[in-house]
Each structure stands twice: as C-alpha cells, then as structure tokens.
Amino acid sequence: MAKKYVYFFGAGKADGKAEMKNLLGGKGANLAEMAGHKDLRLPVPPGFTITTEVCTYYYANKRKYPPVLDAQVNLALKKVEQIMKKKFGDPNDPLLVSVRSGARKSMPGMMETVLNVGLTEKTIVGLVKKTGNERFVYDSYRRLITMYADVVMEKAAGIEPEEGQGIRKQLEAILDKVKKERNVKSDSDLGVADLKKICAAYKAKIKEVLKKEFPDDAKAQLWGGIGAVFASWNGKRAISYRRIEGIPEEWGTAVNVQTMVFGNMGDNSATGVAFTRNPGNGENQFYGEYLVNAQGEDVVAGIRTPAPINKYSQSDHNKHLAILSELMPDIYKKLDNIRKRLELHYKDMQDIEFTIENGVLYMLQCRIGKRNGPAAVRMAMDMLKEKLATKEDVVVRVTPSQLDELLHPIIDPKTEKTAKVLAKGLPAGPGGAAGQIVFTANDAVEWRKQGKKVILVREETNPEDVEGMRAAEAILTARGGMTSHAALVARGWGKCCIVGCGDIEVDLHQKTMHIKGGAALKEGEWITLNGTKGTFYQGQLPMLSAAEENKLFNDFLKVCDSVRTLKIRTNADTPSDAAKARAFGAEGIGLFRTEHMFYGKNSEEPLFRLRKMIVSKNVEERKKALEELFPYVKKDIKGTLEAMDGFPVTIRLLDPPLHEFVPHAKEQQEHLASSLGISLEDLEKRALSLRESNPMMGHRGVRLGVTYPEVTEMQVRAILESTAELLKEGKKILPEIMIPVVCNVAELKNQEELVKKVYAEVLAKFGLKKIDYLFGTMIEVPRAALTADELAGTAEFFSYGTNDLTQMGFGFSRDDIGGFLPDYLNKGILPVDPFQSIDVRGVGQLIEMGIQKGRSVRANLKVGICGEHGGDPASIEFCHKVGMNYVSCSPYRVPIARLAAAQAALKDKGKKAKKSK
Amino acid sequence: MAKKYVYFFGAGKADGKAEMKNLLGGKGANLAEMAGHKDLRLPVPPGFTITTEVCTYYYANKRKYPPVLDAQVNLALKKVEQIMKKKFGDPNDPLLVSVRSGARKSMPGMMETVLNVGLTEKTIVGLVKKTGNERFVYDSYRRLITMYADVVMEKAAGIEPEEGQGIRKQLEAILDKVKKERNVKSDSDLGVADLKKICAAYKAKIKEVLKKEFPDDAKAQLWGGIGAVFASWNGKRAISYRRIEGIPEEWGTAVNVQTMVFGNMGDNSATGVAFTRNPGNGENQFYGEYLVNAQGEDVVAGIRTPAPINKYSQSDHNKHLAILSELMPDIYKKLDNIRKRLELHYKDMQDIEFTIENGVLYMLQCRIGKRNGPAAVRMAMDMLKEKLATKEDVVVRVTPSQLDELLHPIIDPKTEKTAKVLAKGLPAGPGGAAGQIVFTANDAVEWRKQGKKVILVREETNPEDVEGMRAAEAILTARGGMTSHAALVARGWGKCCIVGCGDIEVDLHQKTMHIKGGAALKEGEWITLNGTKGTFYQGQLPMLSAAEENKLFNDFLKVCDSVRTLKIRTNADTPSDAAKARAFGAEGIGLFRTEHMFYGKNSEEPLFRLRKMIVSKNVEERKKALEELFPYVKKDIKGTLEAMDGFPVTIRLLDPPLHEFVPHAKEQQEHLASSLGISLEDLEKRALSLRESNPMMGHRGVRLGVTYPEVTEMQVRAILESTAELLKEGKKILPEIMIPVVCNVAELKNQEELVKKVYAEVLAKFGLKKIDYLFGTMIEVPRAALTADELAGTAEFFSYGTNDLTQMGFGFSRDDIGGFLPDYLNKGILPVDPFQSIDVRGVGQLIEMGIQKGRSVRANLKVGICGEHGGDPASIEFCHKVGMNYVSCSPYRVPIARLAAAQAALKDKGKKAKKSK
C-alpha cells in the first residue's frame, strides 16, 4: 500500500490526532484532535492535512511530489465535498478552501497562507447565486487574487522585489486609486461595481508584471497554493527564523487545506480569538474578543477595535462595544462549553480561533496559549488544585524566564511599546528601572542621600565604584561583557543593569553621555532601563511590579523542590546576602569570596589593611599586616557561616591578582605610604611591580597561596576558628575550603599542608578533637579538568568556575569581548554568549571529562558549579545531566535555579523512560 | 632456591654483565663486564655487588635486609679471599675492601663511599708486617676512621650537623693541630708517630661526640659501610638530586664491595683517570692523567697537579711532569691495549679509572665518557667511519644540547669558572656575549654604528626596541619569562639573551643598573652574558667559538636526516631568515607572521600605514589604508615564498591585538594624527578604545578577521597574487593560509569564504586555472582542540600554537609568570617551565585529542607545531609520538630539531620493536 500522505478531518472523524504534531504540524494535529477525538468532536470545517513528509520529499526530489499525492488529495477533497454537499470548482455551488502552512513548532508570519481558493469566473456566478451576496463574493475574489499573486505567482516567477516594491504593493495601489476616485476611506465602503473593476485591473496588472495570467481554474489554484506553502519553508525569512530558534531544516512544514467559513457574511457572522483562561493574570475566566462581520485577519490587523466576548473581557478600550454573551447568547454558551471541554481534554489553557458563519459556530484552531509569568504560575497552581495537572505538569508549565518576571519590577509593556529606544547594550541585570543620570559613584551616593533615584552611567565599573552601584537604581556601562564587573555585581544584587553599550560615549569631564547618531544626555536627566532586553529610553517610564512575597510563587517552588535532585546553593559573601538567599530557598553557599569584603560597604578599614599587606616588602611586614587583617576577615566569615547554620558553606581563598587592590587615588596612596613609613615613590614602584599584562592569567588564586603561604594560613585560621567558636555554641557548621585557579595537583598538596597545619593549631587552641570540613578545588583552568583524576586524589570536592573555564576554554577575556562578541552573535558564529549559557560542545567537554576523571578516583566526589552559569536554566540542565551535586547562583537566581533543576530532572527522567522502552 | 642478591666478579669471571645496570647499578655492571666478559677479562680487583633489589627490600621492610643476604655476602667474600689468598679480618695478612654505591644512573657525590674497610687494631699489625710500610698502613687507617665516622656513625646517630660542623670537620681540626705542632704543610710530611697519635685522638673524639666506639671489627665495619650506602639513597642530597634529574625513588642503589688496591704504596704505585678519546675535541687519542703514589681521591681533590699519561695529554699546566708512557712504558702499553679493547667492546668512548699497585695495573671503573658538543659530533662521525658505530648509534651519541654548543660562541669555561656571577635570570637565548651596557634601543643602534659592541639592558622589551635588539650583542631584561618578547625575538635570531633577571633594577633616568645587594653598573661598562645558563659577569670574558660552517656538523645532520620521519620547518618572517633556515636544513616555513614586518628593520613605512589602518574610523578609511599597506605586505610575502621555492610556506594572518601597534611616543602620535587629519585627542580616544584588560584573550587573530573582513582579504590577496606571479616565473610555490586564535568552526568558515572570494578574483586577474594552496588553522585555544573534529571539516591542516595553548591550558600569562614561576620550580610544583617543554600530562592531552579528532574526520590532515616548543627536543619527541607531520622552530634551532626528530624516531622504533616481541 502506498504511504499515507494526506490526513482527513471533519464531521466527527479524523485520520490524525494531537500526538501526531511531527507529521501533521501543530495546526493540523490540533484540527484533527478537535474534529475527531471522541471527547471533543467539535464543529471544525472539514479539510485535510498534507504531511511534513511530503515537504521532506519535495526538497529531496527537486521540488517534485510523491506520485501518489495527487490521488490522495483528490480522495480527501471528495470526502470534504460529500460532507459539505458542495463541489470544489462547481459553477453552481462551489466549495472554497483555505491553504495554510503548519510546522511542528509555530513560526508566526514566516510561511504562506492563501484563502478563498476555488473562486473562478465561473464559480463566482454560482456563489453569488447561492449566497445572494455579490459584494461579499467579489471582496473574497479580490482577496484571493492579491494573496495568490503575492504568495504564489511572484515567488514562482523568481522575482525578489525590494521591500514595498512587490506585486502586492502594486495591487494595493490600484485599490487606493479607486478609493480616492470614489472618495471613500474604508474598503467596506466600496460597492460591487468598484470591486469588479478592481478585480479586472488586478488581473491585468498581474499579466503585465508577472507575464502570466491569474489562473481561472480551481485545481490549479489549489496546487499553486500547496506549492507556495512548501516553497515558503525555504524562504529567506523562514530560514533565518529557524536559525534563531534552532529549528532543524529537516522538520519541514505540513499543508492544511480546509473548507472556508466566512465571518464576514453579515451581522449574524463574526470571527474571534479567545483564551480559556486570562493569559495576563491566570484567572480561571474565559477571556477573548471578536468582530462581527469580519474575517480572521481583521481581528489581528487592528483596523477595528474588537469587542469583548463577555463582561470579564471588558476593558476601558472596549467597554462601549456589544459583548458576545449578550449579542449571541446561544453561540456564546456553545463556545463556553467548548472552552470547558478543551481544558478538560488538553489539561492546559488553550488559545482558540473561531468563526460564526450565518449563526453557525466553527472552530478554526486551538493551541496551548501563551501567558506571562504571573499567569503561568497561577494557572499551574490552580490546575494542580483542579486536578487538571500533576506536579510534573506544573513544573514544566512555567518557564524560567516567566518566573523571572515575578522577581523584578518591569517597565509597563504598553508604554514601552511606544517609547523610542535610545540605544541597546547587553542585558546584564534583569527588570526595569528609572532614574536620573549620574556619572560617578560618589555622586550616586550623594544624590541617593538626597532621596533621588539615580542611574549610574560609567565607561566601565571597578571595585571602587561598588558603593555608588549599590546606591543606584540601575547601572549602565559603555564597555564590558555579560560577566564584567558591573554585570557580576548587579546580578548578584538582582539589580537592573546594561553593560557594553557601545553606542554611548561617556564624557566624564562634561558629565554628558553622547549617544551615537543622537542626542547628548546630561547629568540629572531621567532615563529608563530595560535590563531584561538591554534597551534604554529617555524620560521616566511607568513600572509594574510583581509581588516578591507571593504565596503562589512559594507554593510553586515547593512543587519544583519535590521534583528536583540537584541541590541549589548561592553565591554570597555577606551574612545579609546569605540570609536573603536562604529566604529564596538556598541550601548552602557554593561560593563565598573572601576578597569581596574589600569591595563592599564598610570596606575602608579592611581594605586599607589588605593594601598594607599587599605592599609589604617582606614576610615579616606581611605577617604583621595579616594579623591586623585577621579580625575583619574572620568577622565576615563567621557571620556568614552562622547565617547558613545547618548548610554547607564553600569559602574560596583569595583569588584576584593583588594589583587589583592597589589604590589608584593619589590621596589614598599617600595615606598608605605614610602609614607604612615609605615614600610615595617606593609605593608606586611596588605597585608597578605588581602590574601585569594579562592579570586574568597572572599571579592570582592558588599562585598567591603558594608564594605567600602566610596569606593562606590567615584565611584558613579565620575559617576554622569561626567554625570552632560556632560549634561550641551548638551550631551545625560545615565549612568547605576551596582553592582557586588550580592547574596542578602539586599546588593543591602544597596548600593542603598549610591547611592541616593550621587545623592542628586550631584544634589545640579550642580543645576540640575534630572539626568537620572539606578541602577542595575550583576547576576553572582547562588543565585542571584535564588532570582531574590527579586532583581528586587530594580534593574532596570540585566546584566548576565556569566563568574562567569559559574564558580560557575560548580564549575570550570577558572584559574585552565587547570588541567582537556582538559581531559573533550577529553573524551567527556563536549561537549565544558563552558567558551566559555553558558552551556544551566545547567547555562542556572539559566539565564532563573532569567529573568522570575525578569520580574515577574518588567515587563520592562532591561536584558543583559556582560560575555565573549556575543561574542559567540551560546550563543547569547540563549540570544535572553530567551528574553534578549542586549548582550555586546569586541569591536572586535561586528561585529560577530551583525551577530549572526540577525541569532538568523531569527531562532526564523522560529520556531515561524512553531509553528503557 | 633463594633469590640471588649478591653478584661476584673477579679473576676472569663474573655473575653479572653490562646489560644488568638496573640490577647491579652502572658501576657494578661494568665491573662485572670488565672482569668477566670473554673479550675483556681485564685485571679488576675481585669483589661483589649487592643488588638494587636489596635497597628496595631494605626500604620496604623498615631498613631490614633479606634474611639470605648475610650468607650470600659471606659466600662471595670467601670467593674473593680465595682469589686474593688473603682473609678479611685476618690478623696476619688481612684483605681490605672498599664499599661504594652504584645506582643505575650516575649520581656523582650524592651517595657514600668507605675505603680501607677491614683495618682494625689487630689487622694493622699483619698489614704492616706484610707491606713493610707502617706509614701507609696508619695513613689508610686514619682515612678509614674519618670516612667511617662521617659516613656511617654520625648518620646512624641521627645527627644532622650544620654545614662544616660535623664530625669530619672536628677530626680534620685534630689533623691540622698536629700539622701545626709539627710545623708541616702536607699530610704526607707527617710521620708514623704523628699518624698513630692522630688515630688515637680521632677515636677519642668519636667516642666523645658520637657516644660510641669506632668499631674494631672487620665484619662490623663492612656491614656498617653497606648500611650507610643504602641509607644514603634517601639522604637529603640524593633525594633532591633525584628530583631534579627525574630519577625514580624505586630504582634504588646497589653496593659494590671490592678488594682494595693501593696506588699509594710507593713510587711504583699510581692512580689515574683517562678517556679513550679526547673528550674536549673528540680526537681519536688516548687522553688522561695520573698521580704517582696516590689514591684515587687525590686526583680529584686537586692538591697535586696530575701528570699527563702521554705526550698527547700534555698541556701548559703539566708539561713539566713525567708522562706515564715514559715512566712506566710497560704499564702504559697494557693500559693502551685495554683502551683499544674497551672501545672495540663498548663501541663508544670510555672514561676509565685505574690504579697501579707495586707495578701491577688494576682497572677500577669504566663507563661511557662525558664529552662536549664538538667532541661528541667528531667521535660519532669517526666511529661511523671506523665501523664502531652504526647510523643509529651516531644519532643517539650526540645530545641536542651538545649540538647546540656548536651553534653559538661560548664563554671560555676556564675563565668563567673563576668569574663572579653578578646575577642570574632565565636563559632565554643561548651562547655567550660580551659588550658595553646601553639602556635604550636608540643608544644600541648609535653605539653599534660607532663600531662598539653593546648589551641592551631593559626593564622589558617591546616591539619598538627591535632595531636596538638587533644591533646589540645580547639582551638582558629585568622582567618577562622564557617566551616574553625579548626571549622570542632573541631566540629567533640565535642571539644571546637573559630575561626575567629579578635581581637587577634598571634606572633608565640615571642610565644605571642596580644589582640586588651589590654594585651599580653604569652605561658603557662591560658585562659578559652566558645565555645558556642565565648568568652574567662584570667585564669582558674571553669567548670560544665553534665553527658554524663545519663539515662534520653537516655530515652528522645528514645522518640524522636519514633516520627521522618528522619534517623540520622553520619560523621565519623575512626572505633572509628563510634563506638562513634553508641553509640549516629547513624543509619549509611553519610560521610566517604577517605582523612581523611591522617590527623589523625598515618597518617605519609599513608600520605607519598599518597604524593608519588601525585608527581608521570606518570601513572606507580602513580600505584606503589597506590599499596603501598592500604593496609592503606583498613584498615581504613574495620574497619569502621565493626564498622557500619548492617548500611549503605557512602564512599566518594578522594575529596580535591591534592596540599593540598604536604608537606610544608623542611625536609619532602627532605625525599619525596629522596625516589622518584628526586631532591628537581623537587619536588618543581611538587608541584608548582599543586598549584591553587581557589582550592575550582579546580582540585578536581570527576575531580581527571576522570584524574586519577587508583585513583578511588584503592579506589573502597578497599571498595569492605573490604566488601567481611566482608560478608564472616557473617556481614551485606552496602557500598555506593559516587562521590564528580559532575556537569555533564557524570562524573558519567565515574566513574560508573570504579566501575563496579573493581566490576567484586572483585567478581571473592572472588568467590562471588554479593555484595550489592549503587552508588551515592554528590550534592554540583549548576549545579548538576540543572541537577539532568540527574544525577538520574545513581546515586542511592544523598547526599547534603551543605557546598560547600552554597559556590558556594552564591559565599562565607568559608575560606575568615571573611573579610565581620561580617559586613553582623551586618548590617542585612544576618540574619544568611548561613554555620551554610541552606539558605532556595536561596540554599534551589537548594536542593528542585534537589530532585524533581531526584525523577521524580528515584522515590525511597535515599536522605540525609552530610554537616555541618546536625547537625543544623533549617536545619534538612528543610531537613525533603523537603523529605530527612536522615541527617548526626558529632558524637556529633547525639543526637541533633535525637531531631531536631523528632520536625520537629511533626511540619510537625501539619501543615498537620491544612491543612486538
């Protein structure tokens, strides 16, 4: 038997069903389901779907169809004719059809549609007779000619006109001309004579431009339409859309041929779209709009204001219009009944399209409805209660970015739509923020004290700006990438931030920001940032805020927790960050950076002492400075350990190159020099000797610990003494000492000896028999991953520092990628910024290799991630897949991570279930 | 049967043989060979070797011996007694023995020796009677007591005295005191009574200090000596020596117990050392020295000047002394005969020790003799002619560092020995050089013009210094590592260079160089550098030069060529470098750096145009600047391609970050700004925008080619047009276009399109049908190695850039490792600077993985290396092993590489032969 290429649906029957999306496309599968499933059997105009396999065949065989297709189409068409009791091409009572694309995944506007197929000089006569509505018929004919000329004929002629130069525009010009002659504004004001004249002019124009006659044969039109849909799969727009969305070329599209029904046949006709629940807030209410006497495209086009289908759907814009439930109560009742059956059947909110033709309701489409974040959470939790959804369903119903919407205020989308984008940078910290421009950290602090909201605009930020960054509503920088200083700090605080905005130029002297090819903004002017998109606007745009303390939100995350296996930790450097992260559900700290206490609030004293240590000339001076520094370091560590009582805390020893801490300001340099009793010149010399060409790969991390063992010892003492004191208070403290930038097991052994020495000293001092702690390493240098089997002999845990691993894996300095990354993304050389989402193909190999090698030596090796990727859902899925124990991210990303981890667990379970079949 | 732990030798028989070095140690194996091999049967004093397995057992069993050892030693000792017709410990005619260490690999001075074992109060009497030489006997006794106390008793007591505070010093003090009392200078002037008194005083001192009696029992002495040798295997000195030399701990040492023979029994006794050929120049002449009436240690100690064994061995220092061939002609004849038999047997030059006791010749040691570079080459080639050696032997007889000696002038070793080292840095460019200090590149050029020899001393060098570096005899820098700018440039020219000398401080203002804890040297003062060691000296030391054009040298390399399979290319950027490398045997260019034309001589014009290109504001400006630049780029490329006629030339497209070329000098900046018609301020802004935090991982390599496609096109055009022109002249030109810093196949595809476009244009312009060229990539970013299978789909060749691969693999910035690398090497965290020799364990994995993945997709993928490692013998061996097609190194390293490649091929063959057995 020949392969089945054509699937019929209609009149309570269907060859296909919802599960056959790959073969029938989304639209076709749902039409079959609605028409044929025994629980539904909805009034779907009959039709048939030509499968995606025909598309594949078509491209594999020089744009030819399988030989059996013609017969199968004819057979399906005959079934439709029998149901409709009309014949396609019949001069007396012609059947009209639509021809629509329908891929596996919706590609809105990317492929072609032809409506009213089957209208010819002959069938027009029959249709007029049958409908008694000549105007309607010629209007439909005009639409067919326009679409067909544009979609089928121009493409087939191989013409690729410039934007706005195509045949459609030329036909529209004719229409405009007639309207002008007739002095009318709307198409609907044109009469039958006008339309007839227009149709004739259209056909002449087509002949003139495309050198072909508009086909006056129904079958020719049908096959023209089918061919146009298949051809559009490899149209320019579709190809670039697929590239962006990652849709494989071989998927192909299906073609849906369906009986035309008309919402534009008079006042007892209408067309509409609706959602089975409110997609804006998730309430369990039928929500939608419709237009009387209109076709589907009219609702979308926005020429007339659509009316609400019920009271619930009323708004300020449409409350003067008649509601469907009152205008056509019977039809509305039927529709509401369909709504309930669809939800019960699909167990999720549906987005539906319907048409009422002469008082008869038809369903034209149904699909899972899009929704915003708050709505997604509410619907999921409601459906769990309504037993429409299981726990597993709930977890996959909300995307991480939807959840993120609940965590930050956002610019009111309606206002933003109409606002002019001043410039675009990298979206480094999510949410929206408005404020007055300031150009220095000091100004940010000062203005804030005066109660003003400010946006800190900088060329790029450095650790000395941190106070100002905290004071600002948001940060905007001209340079730097997604993991630049500004981006890291802002994300850590959940603060709105845009970085690497190459189109702005900061003139610090004039306190002015110049925008490329645009205006200059001065200090004090208002701007509004969208940190989720990376765009910003002049003036103060209104904000919407999604409640942070939201019961549904927390309940939803508890459902996620019940599903996930990956632990979620946080990156936190202060007791208050730790407390906040705990509130968000963090189960420990994956990264405490000892150096961060030198950046933050109240950092003056410890920073000064750190600087003394750094510019010490010899071990004695250094040890003295370290003694002074010790109490500060210990205080922060102890506070954080206490805040995480009961959970593990990974403390990374001093990581950055020392030069980063040398003061730049003359005043501070003089203070430092005088306190050390050395000349400013000597200080400068010492600072100069610390300067490096490529500090990222310089004297930092464990390399500092090897050359200055006393620095390691001081930190380890602070950790273990804090732990000892808290243990004595009865707390459960689980410190994990982590060595950064390791590339070699010998480094680890060298540091382990120091740790053991201090450990023995602390035990003695506190009279303890033991303190539980783990000793481990960051894996952030490629060589560490390559020699992970050696490292695991000494390290009890690995924590992947994927920021640096990505830097070194790619050879990309994250501070400098601004020069080429935009080009790389635009040209499709990189699908995504690898500092945002783990590069599974390359860096991922190192990660997987490291875990395998490590566990080959130490089976119970604890493995986590503490780079920025720990808060990225795709990366979290990868971390789950390769068998990590936990991910760690900034406090504000903890909820996202809980969700992503749950989704990863379900996906993995699904895969395993599939495999075991 | 019990395991054999003791191997006898003597009287024409031996249990062991030369091949048993692992078991018997080098010394023991050769003693057995000399004594027992049927072709030799030399007069070796009988004795026995306790195997290295006993050493292993000893350490595995808490310093106990295998139970059977005692019996086996007694049995062997009995054999010796039978031959010597004396008994150990016999009061009438005692046998005396020496106890010496002997590891697999010679560890000179690292382990212990005890001579004259068996002398006790009782045996002294018998020996005096037997020899009639009371003075000799007590002198021997004194030596035994000293050695035994030092080597056995002090160590056993667990005392670790400070340097110069041990028992040996205390005993020597007694000797000095007696000499003073007796008013004599030399030990030999002391009489029997003095010696008796000294022996008594020694024993008393030992009792006092070590709380134990000196053992008066022969067997006790013997076992004490054996134990001391085994214990010394894990002495501090031995451990640190093993670490440096990479000798595994488990090898262990053997112990050789051998009948004492005495060269100090009167004027018909003597002792000497000799080489079967001259180790200084390789001539086939017997060469050695001896001392009458002396023990072996006296020759080494240098108290008396040894005499030459024959006329050939005479020198200015010893020509007044009697030569052995005249003093004892019969003995000399015997020795000369032994020399010939040894060479015939061992087929290599031997280093021998002999003793003449009362007119009887004994052989105490033979081993492969050390030799310098010129000697090694001459001996190898001579022996090939003499059929003593095969081609394969010849190749392994010369080490790469010996060959290197022939390539550079060196400081006269005799003078250098006595010169005071001023400071030490990293040995970046080999050989020696003397000159007057200058501190700027300009001064170097100026002084040189005046005919002066100068050493350029800089904090660190940058591309603007290149002219001065070329003018200087040598370069000395305070900062930078083995692959810093100075090191790379100097090595490329084969120029003497020391970098990263942290002990010097350059005061450019005062034109003075301060040496830590030492003097200051001013401009114009003479210094002499040893770039092979990294040391430098005050004043002008004399130089020796090994001829560069040396027939033997070339013949030797031809032998190497006949053995190797790896091709040797060179890194060259100019026609003259290319010509030089061809003369050295290069078979192509593995790395031509397009940017290097902007550094070298006559770079002013092209550099200026490059700078114009760099600071261009837009594509139009840039294209104009590129057009101006084109002729310069093409000229160098064409000249180099022509110089390599018949060989492939790999041309790497522009690699460094553009900022590197921005002028620093105000004057040049002004010139540039005015030529562009922009303000100095604008220029500075543009330059600032190019500055990067970590330029090594910034906007460079292919990233430039992606963002500025016109830059790639210009270079490709220069390559292909040059090739086309030369092809038309009938030359065989094989360009290989190489894309640097690739991390992603999409980058490569992007550049390939540009290449193809230009290719088509050039074909059309020259009316050619095709031009043979290859398109390939550097593998220098870890991700490139990880995704090599993807890259190989597009790249026709891979060239490993191991400098950058090491930088990113380790996360070591080579410009900044000065801060920690010395510590890493000292603390044994790294066995060797990974920029000098490929880190096989880590970076090597990436290399191997890349080759395997690459060839899995493209079986005939051409693979080479163009990093600095291409000239390092150990790295070359690795490159051979992993299946590379070629290595590429600086012209002066080409001969070394030819040798190393040959040795690698032999080693590999040997391994395969072994495996197939």
Brief summary of the model shown:
Chain A is of the alpha/beta class and 917 residues long. The first copy, chain A, contains 35 helices and 34 strands.
Topology:
Two copies of one chain form a homodimer.
Chain A: E1 6-10, E2 13-14, H1 21-36, E3 47-50, H2 52-60, H3 69-84, E4 87-88, E5 94-95, E6 97-103, E7 113-117, H4 121-131, H5 134-156, H6 167-182, H7 192-210, H8 218-232, H9 236-245, E8 253-259, E9 270-275, E10 287-292, H10 296-301, E11 307-308, H11 324-327, H12 329-346, E12 350-357, E13 360-368, H13 373-385, H14 391-397, H15 400-405, E14 410-411, H16 413-418, E15 421-424, E16 426-429, E17 432-438, H17 441-449, E18 454-458, H18 466-471, E19 474-477, H19 485-493, E20 496-499, E21 504-507, E22 512-515, E23 520-522, E24 526-530, E25 535-538, E26 543-544, H20 551-563, E27 567-571, H21 575-583, E28 589-593, H22 604-614, H23 619-643, E29 648-652, H24 666-676, H25 680-690, H26 702-707, H27 709-728, E30 734-739, H28 745-766, E31 774-779, H29 782-786, H30 788-791, E32 797-800, H31 802-810, H32 821-826, H33 843-857, E33 862-865, H34 873-881, E34 886-889, H35 894-916
Parallel strand pairs in A: 4-5, 17-18, 18-19, 19-20, 27-28, 27-34, 28-29, 29-30, 30-31, 31-32, 32-33, 33-34
Antiparallel strand pairs in A: 1-2, 1-3, 3-8, 6-7, 6-8, 9-10, 9-12, 10-11, 12-13, 14-26, 15-25, 16-20, 17-24, 21-22, 22-23, 24-25
Helix pairs in contact in A: 4-5, 5-6, 5-7, 5-8, 6-7, 13-14, 13-20, 14-20, 20-35, 21-23, 22-23, 23-27, 24-25, 27-28, 34-35
